[in-house]
Design brief:
With about 375 residues, the chain is an alpha+beta fold. It has helices at about 45-55, 95-105, 110-125, 140-155, 170-185, 200-205, 225-230, 235-240, 270-275, 365-370, and strands spanning about 5-15, 20-30, 35-40, 60-65, 70, 80-85, 160-165, 190-195, 210-215, 215-220, 245-255, 255-260, 265-270, 280-285, 300-310, 315-320, 325-330, 340-345, 350-355, 360-365. Strands 6-7-8-3-9-10 form a 6-stranded mixed beta sheet, with helices on both faces. It has a 6-stranded antiparallel beta sheet with strand order 13-12-11-14-19-20. The N and C termini lie far apart (about 55 Å). The structure holds adenosine-5'-triphosphate (ATP).
Length: about 375
Amino acid sequence: MARPIHLESVHKEYRSAGTVHVAVDDLSLSIPEGSFTTLVGPSGCGKTTTLRMIAGLETPTEGRIAFGEQDVTDLSPQDRNCAMVFQSIALYPHMTVRQNIGYGLKVQGVSHEERDRRIEEAATVLQISEQLEKMPAELSGGQQQRVALGSAFVQDPDILLLDEPMSDLDAQLKAELRVEVQRLHQELDATMVYVTHDQTEAMTMSDHVVLLNNGQLEQFAPPGELFDRPVSKYVSRFIGTPSTNLVPTTVVEHDGSYVLDGDGFEIPAPADHFANRIGEPITLGIRPQYLSPDGGKHRFTVIVDVVEQLGTEFVVHGRSTAGNNVDVVSSTLGHVNHGDEIVVGFDEDDLFVFDNDGKTICYGDELTNHSPKQQR
Ligand code: ATP
Protein backbone atom coordinates (compact mmCIF):
# COMPACT_ATOMS: atom_id res chain seq x y z
CA MET A 1 0.00 0.00 0.00
CA ALA A 2 1.42 3.39 -1.03
CA ARG A 3 2.92 5.38 1.82
CA PRO A 4 4.02 9.02 2.08
CA ILE A 5 7.75 9.67 2.52
CA HIS A 6 8.89 12.29 5.03
CA LEU A 7 12.43 13.64 5.08
CA GLU A 8 13.14 15.75 8.15
CA SER A 9 16.35 17.86 8.14
CA VAL A 10 18.19 15.09 6.35
CA HIS A 11 21.91 15.71 6.01
CA LYS A 12 24.48 13.45 4.37
CA GLU A 13 28.19 14.05 4.30
CA TYR A 14 31.05 11.92 3.06
CA ARG A 15 34.51 12.10 4.61
CA SER A 16 37.60 11.11 2.69
CA ALA A 17 41.27 12.01 3.08
CA GLY A 18 40.47 14.47 5.86
CA THR A 19 37.92 16.46 3.82
CA VAL A 20 34.18 16.59 4.39
CA HIS A 21 31.85 16.69 1.41
CA VAL A 22 28.21 17.61 1.99
CA ALA A 23 26.08 15.69 -0.55
CA VAL A 24 22.64 16.52 0.94
CA ASP A 25 22.19 19.57 3.12
CA ASP A 26 19.31 19.90 5.61
CA LEU A 27 16.66 18.50 3.27
CA SER A 28 13.07 18.50 4.52
CA LEU A 29 10.11 17.47 2.38
CA SER A 30 7.00 15.31 2.42
CA ILE A 31 6.36 13.26 -0.70
CA PRO A 32 2.62 12.57 -0.94
CA GLU A 33 1.37 8.99 -0.74
CA GLY A 34 0.81 7.48 -4.18
CA SER A 35 2.41 10.40 -5.99
CA PHE A 36 4.90 10.26 -8.84
CA THR A 37 7.62 12.56 -7.59
CA THR A 38 10.77 13.39 -9.52
CA LEU A 39 14.10 14.42 -8.01
CA VAL A 40 15.77 16.61 -10.60
CA GLY A 41 18.84 18.83 -10.79
CA PRO A 42 22.30 19.02 -12.35
CA SER A 43 24.95 16.36 -11.89
CA GLY A 44 26.25 16.16 -8.31
CA CYS A 45 23.30 17.99 -6.70
CA GLY A 46 22.46 15.02 -4.43
CA LYS A 47 19.61 13.23 -6.25
CA THR A 48 21.01 9.69 -6.07
CA THR A 49 22.21 10.12 -2.48
CA THR A 50 18.69 11.21 -1.47
CA LEU A 51 17.15 8.23 -3.27
CA ARG A 52 19.65 5.81 -1.71
CA MET A 53 18.83 7.17 1.76
CA ILE A 54 15.12 6.57 1.11
CA ALA A 55 15.98 3.01 0.01
CA GLY A 56 18.14 2.43 3.10
CA LEU A 57 21.32 1.93 1.04
CA GLU A 58 22.85 5.00 2.74
CA THR A 59 22.29 6.24 6.28
CA PRO A 60 21.78 9.99 6.85
CA THR A 61 24.55 11.66 8.86
CA GLU A 62 21.76 13.60 10.58
CA GLY A 63 17.99 13.82 10.29
CA ARG A 64 15.09 11.42 10.08
CA ILE A 65 13.25 9.53 7.33
CA ALA A 66 9.73 8.18 7.87
CA PHE A 67 7.29 6.26 5.67
CA GLY A 68 3.95 7.48 6.98
CA GLU A 69 4.10 7.16 10.76
CA GLN A 70 6.97 4.65 10.70
CA ASP A 71 10.50 5.92 11.36
CA VAL A 72 12.68 4.00 8.88
CA THR A 73 15.94 5.92 9.39
CA ASP A 74 17.74 2.87 10.80
CA LEU A 75 15.67 0.16 9.13
CA SER A 76 17.51 -2.18 6.73
CA PRO A 77 16.60 -1.93 3.00
CA GLN A 78 14.83 -5.33 2.98
CA ASP A 79 12.50 -4.27 5.81
CA ARG A 80 11.21 -1.13 4.03
CA ASN A 81 9.03 -2.72 1.31
CA CYS A 82 10.82 -0.52 -1.17
CA ALA A 83 11.96 -1.60 -4.65
CA MET A 84 14.64 0.18 -6.63
CA VAL A 85 15.50 0.17 -10.34
CA PHE A 86 18.98 1.37 -11.26
CA GLN A 87 20.43 3.16 -14.27
CA SER A 88 22.70 0.22 -15.14
CA ILE A 89 20.53 -2.77 -15.90
CA ALA A 90 21.36 -5.64 -13.55
CA LEU A 91 19.84 -8.85 -14.96
CA TYR A 92 21.10 -12.39 -14.35
CA PRO A 93 22.52 -13.37 -17.78
CA HIS A 94 22.01 -17.12 -17.30
CA MET A 95 18.30 -16.82 -16.38
CA THR A 96 15.34 -16.31 -18.71
CA VAL A 97 13.28 -13.13 -18.52
CA ARG A 98 10.62 -15.04 -16.55
CA GLN A 99 13.22 -16.27 -14.05
CA ASN A 100 14.76 -12.80 -13.75
CA ILE A 101 11.43 -11.13 -13.01
CA GLY A 102 10.41 -13.84 -10.54
CA TYR A 103 13.76 -14.25 -8.78
CA GLY A 104 13.00 -11.93 -5.85
CA LEU A 105 9.67 -13.70 -5.25
CA LYS A 106 11.36 -17.10 -5.39
CA VAL A 107 13.85 -16.00 -2.72
CA GLN A 108 10.90 -14.87 -0.58
CA GLY A 109 9.35 -18.36 -0.93
CA VAL A 110 6.33 -17.26 -2.99
CA SER A 111 4.62 -20.29 -4.59
CA HIS A 112 5.24 -21.21 -8.22
CA GLU A 113 1.64 -20.46 -9.25
CA GLU A 114 1.55 -17.07 -7.53
CA ARG A 115 4.94 -16.18 -9.03
CA ASP A 116 3.75 -16.99 -12.54
CA ARG A 117 0.56 -15.00 -12.01
CA ARG A 118 2.48 -11.89 -10.94
CA ILE A 119 5.17 -12.30 -13.64
CA GLU A 120 2.52 -12.50 -16.35
CA GLU A 121 0.69 -9.47 -14.96
CA ALA A 122 3.95 -7.46 -14.98
CA ALA A 123 4.79 -8.66 -18.48
CA THR A 124 1.36 -7.55 -19.74
CA VAL A 125 1.68 -4.06 -18.19
CA LEU A 126 5.21 -3.69 -19.59
CA GLN A 127 4.38 -5.29 -22.97
CA ILE A 128 7.07 -7.99 -22.76
CA SER A 129 4.80 -11.07 -22.66
CA GLU A 130 6.43 -12.31 -25.89
CA GLN A 131 9.90 -12.14 -24.36
CA LEU A 132 9.32 -14.16 -21.17
CA GLU A 133 11.21 -17.29 -22.30
CA LYS A 134 14.12 -15.38 -23.88
CA MET A 135 17.55 -14.76 -22.35
CA PRO A 136 18.57 -11.15 -21.47
CA ALA A 137 21.25 -11.11 -24.20
CA GLU A 138 18.48 -11.57 -26.82
CA LEU A 139 16.73 -8.33 -25.73
CA SER A 140 17.26 -4.69 -26.68
CA GLY A 141 18.35 -2.20 -23.99
CA GLY A 142 14.80 -0.92 -23.69
CA GLN A 143 13.40 -4.44 -23.27
CA GLN A 144 16.05 -5.24 -20.65
CA GLN A 145 15.08 -2.15 -18.67
CA ARG A 146 11.42 -3.26 -18.87
CA VAL A 147 12.49 -6.58 -17.33
CA ALA A 148 14.21 -4.69 -14.51
CA LEU A 149 11.01 -2.66 -14.00
CA GLY A 150 9.05 -5.94 -14.01
CA SER A 151 11.25 -7.36 -11.22
CA ALA A 152 10.37 -4.31 -9.12
CA PHE A 153 6.67 -4.44 -10.08
CA VAL A 154 6.13 -8.06 -8.98
CA GLN A 155 7.35 -7.25 -5.47
CA ASP A 156 4.28 -5.02 -5.03
CA PRO A 157 6.34 -2.41 -3.15
CA ASP A 158 4.88 0.46 -1.09
CA ILE A 159 7.58 2.65 -2.55
CA LEU A 160 9.21 2.29 -5.97
CA LEU A 161 12.48 4.15 -6.51
CA LEU A 162 13.90 4.66 -9.99
CA ASP A 163 17.41 6.03 -10.49
CA GLU A 164 17.77 7.41 -14.04
CA PRO A 165 16.40 4.16 -15.52
CA MET A 166 16.35 5.55 -19.06
CA SER A 167 19.57 7.51 -19.30
CA ASP A 168 21.37 4.82 -21.34
CA LEU A 169 18.57 4.47 -23.90
CA ASP A 170 18.14 6.24 -27.22
CA ALA A 171 15.49 8.94 -27.65
CA GLN A 172 12.81 6.67 -29.15
CA LEU A 173 13.19 3.97 -26.49
CA LYS A 174 13.12 6.66 -23.80
CA ALA A 175 9.84 7.99 -25.14
CA GLU A 176 8.36 4.45 -25.13
CA LEU A 177 9.61 3.64 -21.66
CA ARG A 178 8.28 6.92 -20.26
CA VAL A 179 4.82 5.65 -21.11
CA GLU A 180 5.53 2.23 -19.54
CA VAL A 181 6.74 3.83 -16.33
CA GLN A 182 3.58 5.92 -16.10
CA ARG A 183 1.49 2.83 -16.79
CA LEU A 184 3.34 1.10 -13.94
CA HIS A 185 2.43 3.98 -11.67
CA GLN A 186 -1.25 3.63 -12.57
CA GLU A 187 -1.19 -0.12 -11.91
CA LEU A 188 0.83 -0.11 -8.69
CA ASP A 189 -0.46 1.12 -5.36
CA ALA A 190 2.93 2.68 -4.63
CA THR A 191 4.60 6.04 -4.10
CA MET A 192 7.08 6.48 -6.94
CA VAL A 193 10.26 8.55 -6.72
CA TYR A 194 12.15 9.00 -9.95
CA VAL A 195 15.62 10.51 -10.34
CA THR A 196 16.59 12.30 -13.53
CA HIS A 197 18.78 15.20 -14.61
CA ASP A 198 16.44 15.75 -17.56
CA GLN A 199 13.95 18.47 -16.70
CA THR A 200 11.70 17.53 -19.65
CA GLU A 201 11.30 14.03 -18.17
CA ALA A 202 10.57 15.52 -14.76
CA MET A 203 8.03 17.98 -16.11
CA THR A 204 6.16 15.52 -18.34
CA MET A 205 6.04 12.43 -16.13
CA SER A 206 5.56 13.49 -12.54
CA ASP A 207 2.90 15.14 -10.44
CA HIS A 208 5.49 16.64 -8.05
CA VAL A 209 9.02 17.83 -8.75
CA VAL A 210 11.85 18.27 -6.23
CA LEU A 211 14.52 20.55 -7.71
CA LEU A 212 17.82 20.28 -5.86
CA ASN A 213 20.70 22.74 -5.98
CA ASN A 214 24.03 21.77 -4.48
CA GLY A 215 22.48 19.38 -1.95
CA GLN A 216 19.74 21.81 -0.93
CA LEU A 217 16.06 21.99 -1.78
CA GLU A 218 15.44 24.79 -4.27
CA GLN A 219 11.71 24.18 -4.92
CA PHE A 220 9.22 21.35 -4.37
CA ALA A 221 6.00 21.82 -6.33
CA PRO A 222 3.82 20.43 -9.13
CA PRO A 223 5.44 20.90 -12.59
CA GLY A 224 3.15 23.77 -13.63
CA GLU A 225 4.03 25.73 -10.51
CA LEU A 226 7.77 25.38 -11.16
CA PHE A 227 7.21 26.72 -14.68
CA ASP A 228 4.87 29.58 -13.75
CA ARG A 229 5.97 30.48 -10.19
CA PRO A 230 9.70 29.71 -9.89
CA VAL A 231 11.03 30.77 -6.49
CA SER A 232 14.38 31.76 -7.97
CA LYS A 233 16.35 32.54 -11.11
CA TYR A 234 17.93 29.05 -10.76
CA VAL A 235 14.50 27.37 -10.99
CA SER A 236 13.32 29.52 -13.87
CA ARG A 237 16.51 28.78 -15.83
CA PHE A 238 16.58 25.02 -15.08
CA ILE A 239 12.93 24.37 -15.88
CA GLY A 240 11.74 25.01 -19.46
CA THR A 241 13.51 24.88 -22.82
CA PRO A 242 15.07 27.10 -24.02
CA SER A 243 15.95 28.72 -20.69
CA THR A 244 14.28 31.85 -19.40
CA ASN A 245 15.73 35.06 -20.92
CA LEU A 246 17.35 37.37 -18.40
CA VAL A 247 17.34 41.16 -18.71
CA PRO A 248 19.33 43.27 -16.23
CA THR A 249 17.44 46.35 -14.98
CA THR A 250 17.66 48.90 -12.18
CA VAL A 251 14.94 50.34 -9.97
CA VAL A 252 14.60 54.09 -10.60
CA GLU A 253 12.21 56.68 -9.21
CA HIS A 254 10.23 58.82 -11.68
CA ASP A 255 8.01 61.59 -10.30
CA GLY A 256 7.31 59.64 -7.17
CA SER A 257 6.63 56.35 -8.96
CA TYR A 258 9.06 53.50 -9.41
CA VAL A 259 10.06 51.79 -12.63
CA LEU A 260 12.32 48.94 -13.69
CA ASP A 261 14.56 50.47 -16.32
CA GLY A 262 16.43 48.30 -18.82
CA ASP A 263 17.03 47.31 -22.44
CA GLY A 264 14.95 50.19 -23.81
CA PHE A 265 11.77 49.76 -21.76
CA GLU A 266 10.36 50.87 -18.43
CA ILE A 267 8.18 48.57 -16.36
CA PRO A 268 6.05 50.02 -13.54
CA ALA A 269 7.30 48.74 -10.20
CA PRO A 270 4.90 48.70 -7.24
CA ALA A 271 6.20 50.53 -4.17
CA ASP A 272 5.55 47.67 -1.78
CA HIS A 273 8.13 45.52 -3.56
CA PHE A 274 10.55 48.17 -4.86
CA ALA A 275 10.49 51.42 -2.79
CA ASN A 276 13.45 50.23 -0.73
CA ARG A 277 15.37 48.93 -3.75
CA ILE A 278 16.19 52.18 -5.61
CA GLY A 279 19.43 51.79 -7.54
CA GLU A 280 19.48 48.04 -6.91
CA PRO A 281 20.33 45.73 -9.82
CA ILE A 282 17.25 43.65 -10.58
CA THR A 283 16.92 40.91 -13.20
CA LEU A 284 13.78 40.39 -15.24
CA GLY A 285 13.04 36.88 -16.48
CA ILE A 286 10.87 36.21 -19.52
CA ARG A 287 10.27 32.80 -21.04
CA PRO A 288 11.08 32.52 -24.79
CA GLN A 289 7.50 31.27 -25.35
CA TYR A 290 6.11 34.56 -23.98
CA LEU A 291 8.06 36.82 -26.36
CA SER A 292 5.78 37.54 -29.28
CA PRO A 293 6.71 38.86 -32.76
CA ASP A 294 3.07 39.94 -33.17
CA GLY A 295 2.17 41.70 -29.96
CA GLY A 296 3.14 42.65 -26.44
CA LYS A 297 3.00 45.95 -24.62
CA HIS A 298 6.79 46.36 -24.35
CA ARG A 299 8.66 45.89 -27.59
CA PHE A 300 12.37 45.67 -28.41
CA THR A 301 14.67 44.66 -31.24
CA VAL A 302 16.46 41.34 -31.47
CA ILE A 303 19.35 40.73 -33.87
CA VAL A 304 19.02 37.14 -35.10
CA ASP A 305 21.94 34.78 -34.73
CA VAL A 306 20.68 31.20 -35.26
CA VAL A 307 17.22 29.80 -36.11
CA GLU A 308 16.26 26.22 -35.23
CA GLN A 309 13.10 24.44 -36.34
CA LEU A 310 11.41 22.22 -33.76
CA GLY A 311 8.37 20.65 -35.39
CA THR A 312 5.90 23.46 -36.00
CA GLU A 313 7.85 25.97 -33.86
CA PHE A 314 10.98 28.00 -34.53
CA VAL A 315 13.55 28.83 -31.89
CA VAL A 316 15.36 32.07 -32.65
CA HIS A 317 18.60 32.68 -30.78
CA GLY A 318 19.78 36.28 -30.91
CA ARG A 319 20.68 39.31 -28.84
CA SER A 320 19.05 42.58 -27.97
CA THR A 321 20.55 45.90 -29.06
CA ALA A 322 21.86 46.23 -25.49
CA GLY A 323 23.73 42.94 -26.02
CA ASN A 324 21.63 40.59 -23.86
CA ASN A 325 21.16 37.04 -25.19
CA VAL A 326 17.53 36.54 -26.20
CA ASP A 327 15.73 33.35 -27.30
CA VAL A 328 12.29 33.50 -28.90
CA VAL A 329 9.97 30.54 -29.55
CA SER A 330 7.29 31.16 -32.16
CA SER A 331 5.51 29.39 -34.99
CA THR A 332 5.65 32.49 -37.21
CA LEU A 333 9.41 33.08 -37.44
CA GLY A 334 10.27 30.55 -40.16
CA HIS A 335 11.25 33.32 -42.59
CA VAL A 336 14.02 34.96 -40.51
CA ASN A 337 17.75 34.47 -41.05
CA HIS A 338 21.09 35.20 -39.40
CA GLY A 339 21.65 38.97 -39.19
CA ASP A 340 17.98 39.96 -39.51
CA GLU A 341 16.48 42.36 -37.00
CA ILE A 342 13.09 41.43 -35.59
CA VAL A 343 10.91 43.24 -33.09
CA VAL A 344 9.40 41.19 -30.28
CA GLY A 345 7.11 42.17 -27.45
CA PHE A 346 6.00 41.00 -24.04
CA ASP A 347 3.47 41.87 -21.38
CA GLU A 348 4.39 42.64 -17.78
CA ASP A 349 2.09 39.84 -16.69
CA ASP A 350 4.52 37.22 -18.00
CA LEU A 351 7.64 38.47 -16.23
CA PHE A 352 9.54 37.10 -13.24
CA VAL A 353 11.50 39.62 -11.16
CA PHE A 354 14.66 38.46 -9.35
CA ASP A 355 16.81 40.22 -6.77
CA ASN A 356 20.58 40.39 -6.85
CA ASP A 357 20.82 37.01 -5.05
CA GLY A 358 18.57 35.35 -7.63
CA LYS A 359 15.52 35.07 -5.36
CA THR A 360 12.12 35.93 -6.88
CA ILE A 361 10.86 39.32 -5.66
CA CYS A 362 7.51 39.06 -7.44
CA TYR A 363 5.73 37.72 -10.50
CA GLY A 364 4.35 39.67 -13.46
CA ASP A 365 0.76 39.64 -12.25
CA GLU A 366 1.92 41.47 -9.11
CA LEU A 367 3.45 44.20 -11.29
CA THR A 368 0.19 44.80 -13.10
CA ASN A 369 -2.24 44.43 -10.18
CA HIS A 370 -1.45 47.70 -8.50
CA SER A 371 -2.80 51.21 -8.57
CA PRO A 372 -0.23 53.93 -9.46
CA LYS A 373 -1.56 56.03 -6.54
CA GLN A 374 -0.40 53.34 -4.10
CA GLN A 375 3.18 53.79 -5.20
CA ARG A 376 4.02 56.82 -3.04
P1 ATP B 1 24.48 12.52 -10.98
O1 ATP B 1 23.33 13.10 -11.73
O2 ATP B 1 25.80 12.85 -11.59
O3 ATP B 1 24.31 11.06 -10.67
P2 ATP B 1 23.53 13.29 -8.32
O4 ATP B 1 22.73 14.54 -8.31
O5 ATP B 1 22.79 12.00 -8.27
O6 ATP B 1 24.54 13.30 -9.55
P3 ATP B 1 24.96 12.30 -6.04
O7 ATP B 1 25.42 11.05 -6.74
O8 ATP B 1 23.90 12.17 -5.03
O9 ATP B 1 24.54 13.40 -7.10
O10 ATP B 1 26.23 12.98 -5.38
C1 ATP B 1 26.15 14.19 -4.64
C2 ATP B 1 27.56 14.60 -4.24
O11 ATP B 1 28.07 13.68 -3.29
C3 ATP B 1 28.53 14.61 -5.42
O12 ATP B 1 29.40 15.71 -5.28
C4 ATP B 1 29.28 13.30 -5.27
O13 ATP B 1 30.59 13.42 -5.76
C5 ATP B 1 29.28 13.10 -3.76
N1 ATP B 1 29.25 11.68 -3.39
C6 ATP B 1 28.27 10.79 -3.70
N2 ATP B 1 28.57 9.56 -3.20
C7 ATP B 1 29.79 9.68 -2.58
C8 ATP B 1 30.63 8.78 -1.88
N3 ATP B 1 30.29 7.50 -1.70
N4 ATP B 1 31.80 9.28 -1.37
C9 ATP B 1 32.14 10.58 -1.54
N5 ATP B 1 31.38 11.48 -2.18
C10 ATP B 1 30.22 11.05 -2.70
